[in-house]
Amino acid sequence: MDSAPNDLIFYCIVLGCGTLLPWNAFLSNLDYIGMLYPSCKLDYLTAANFAGNLLFLIVQLQWTGNRHSKALIGITIHLIVVAYILFIVFHVKDISAPDWKASEQASFSALIVGMTLSGGACASLQGSLFSIAGQHEGGGKLCGCLMTGAALAGVLACAFSIGSKELYSTPPAATDSLRRGALISLGCSLAVTLLAAILLPPFLTRARRLRRQAVVAHISAMLAQDDSYGA
After folding, report:
1. What is the rounded CA–CA span in Å between residue 81 and residue 101?
2. Per 3-state DSSP, what percentage of the chain is helix, strand, and coil (rounded to 5)?
3. What is the pLDDT of residues 85-137, one digit of tens each?
């Protein structure tokens, strides 16, 4: 029977959402990010993210251990990258200001590095979570909950983006509308990702404890079976 504890089901849904929400939040705000970097090609950002994702997936074929550490590192990088994008959107109030024009290229280069790390972090986090979830008796249901959370991330990112833009649909300037909408959307995404980061340690602890209990129960059952044969 493919059953799983309710708390692990809840953890997996939130963690699955927190894994993909940063990327979905970035995609849903590409219109304003394109205004921030008018002289840069946004395709480089998506290419960097996918390259980081692919590279770490290849590395992970050999580096199969330390799942808990990889998950913690992955969620931390996610938080840093989302916070950095949110900081840029909050800090740059006038995209035509000379100071921003002078630092635009440097900021874009830093964002490329961040998106590469974020892609690797996503691969690390997803691979670790699916591996940990699959080790349990209800692994099929837990993996399904992770996928449900990932789908929920797309819905939330779109809802945050659409709702924030509708809220500021008639501002003094279209650029200001997109900026304020991006602040709300990215801020909400950061809050959900932060919740996932807070829930990750108790999830790992609970999963480790259940795994040990399952091993002990299996060994006890084998010993009892040997005793019955001996009798």
Report:
1. 22
2. 85, 0, 15
3. 888 888 887 777 888 878 888 889 998 998 898 888 888 888 888 888 887 77
